[in-house]
Amino acid sequence: MDLCLVSRETKEGGRIIVEVDGKVAKIRNLKVDGRPDGFGDSREKVVAFGFDYCYWSVNPEDPQYASQDVVFQDLGTEVLSGAAKGYNICLFAYGQTGSGKTYTMLGTPVSVGLTPRICEGLFLREDDCAPLPSSCRIKVSFLEIYNERVRDLLKQSDQKKAYTLRVREHPEMGPYVQGLSQHVVTNYKQVIQLLEEGIANRITAATHVHEASSRSHAIFTIYYTQAVLENNLPLEIASKINLVDLAGSERADPSYCKDRLTEGANINKSLVTLGIVISTLAQNSQVFSSCQSLSSSASDGGDSGVPSSPSGTSSGRGPSQRQSYIPYRDSVLTWLLKDSLGGNSRTIMVATVSPAHTSYSETMSTLRYASNAKNIINKPRVNEVRPSSEVLVWYSLHQVLLSFSLFITNWEPDTYSPIYMPWRLCYLSDLLLKGRDFSNISVYQNHLERL
Ligand SMILES: Nc1ncnc2c1ncn2[C@@H]1O[C@H](COP(=O)(O)OP(=O)(O)OP(=O)(O)O)[C@@H](O)[C@H]1O
């Protein structure tokens, strides 16, 4: 987990109570500090939290100041390399309002954040990969969750009333938003245009309903598909990258919201549930690790399962069954991020905090959340789609025909020539068999054209 600090409250005269020491973030309790040796007070003066990375971005003059580029070099490149290998990735920013979530995820025109840098990296990577036997297709979508309603930020309705989309669950692909628009992008400029369009819609929507933007969660998703040749056979590697800018976490504290859950519209149910999901997953992961160490001597060779198993009622028959139920479906955000939070995705949580003493309890709560989330064990897996045997037959046939035609005519085939028919048929049959996205054809078409 990662920690990022911002300067807003220091400008308002707050005393700095957070410091970063390598990969450790330390927070000082001034109330305990005020008493001689903290006598009669059981609270810690300084509490330290260890993370994978800690960033200090309070003062640009400071030698340890972490710029957007430093954050990208650590986290953004991890996202890019994971996506290239075919993992689903989720990167989300969590923290109190004004602590720098949007700054970290999106940035400003002069200080570009993680999302645009990751998009740029995907296109650079594609250019880098050009001589390799691969070709990529990139699609994006952008949605907002506000008061448990999902809105497409890239497809606005003509009517004044914003329309909402439904979340559904596919038995294999998991939860998805029905009717969410996906946009094919072929260069960085197109992504930035869509990103800006979505951000503008997000802000407009927030003003329209008279709420601060911090009350909505924005999820920018990149669908990155690569067509590669492995041992001369076609293979598709797909990765979904979720980049999430969450609402302010002050509404995530269950004690803050407990009495108000029934108030409905005013409560950010998604953040409350996210907190519950994170702490339950962390607990389950701890149970899971202790189970593993307990059972290591009695190794039965079986798969002990992911700690996020939704079937979590306790029956007392074994330690693995003491795992708690995870209420993903209690909120739209956690349902949509189900795989990212406790499933097959690589997930990075960026916790942003204010260093000012006035934010002590919020900062403490965010650091505890991040520390908790660090204990979650996911089981990332590569998303590969291998062609069916029928497709392979077609593909081999095509290869033979292509070599034969080149041999006989010594002629450069163009994509519209009849010689491409078998190849087309082979992917059509694949589509028919698997019911996959028709545009996959273009990925392979590009791919073959590059060979
Ligand atoms: N590391 C930083 N360096 C410089 N300015 C920053 C930094 N982090 C945040 N800011 C600035 O602080 C202000 C608040 O940041 P930001 O909008 O990112 O907060 P937020 O956590 O997204 O808030 P909200 O939950 O309300 O959306 C912005 O003007 C932003 O540009």
Question: What does this protein structure show overall?
Answer:
The chain has 451 residues and is of the alpha/beta class. It has three domains: 2-283 and 327-384, 3-Layer(aba) Sandwich (Kinesin); 291-322, no CATH class; 388-450, no CATH class. It has 14 helices and 15 strands. It has helices at residues 8-11, 30-33, 68-85, 101-105, 114-129, 188-208, 254-257, 269-295, 332-336, 338-342, 360-373, 389-409, 421-434, 440-450, and strands spanning 2-5, 18-21, 24-28, 46-50, 53-55, 88-95, 134-146, 149-152, 166-170, 174-178, 183-185, 216-230, 233-245, 345-353, 384-385. The strands form three sheets. Strands 1, 5, 6, 7, 8, 11, 12, 13, 14 and 15 form a ten-stranded mixed beta sheet that branches. A three-stranded antiparallel beta sheet has the order 2-3-4, covered by helices on one side. A two-stranded antiparallel ribbon has the order 9-10. Strand 12 and strand 13 (233-245) form a beta hairpin. The longest helix is centred in the middle third of the chain and has 27 residues, at 269-295. The model is unreliable at 1-7, 129-133, 204-213, 254-267, 297-320 and 435-442 (pLDDT under 50). Bound molecules: adenosine-5'-triphosphate (ATP). Adenosine-5'-triphosphate binds next to helix 4. Adenosine-5'-triphosphate binds at residues 6, 8, 57, 95, 97-103, 108, 213-214, 248, 352.
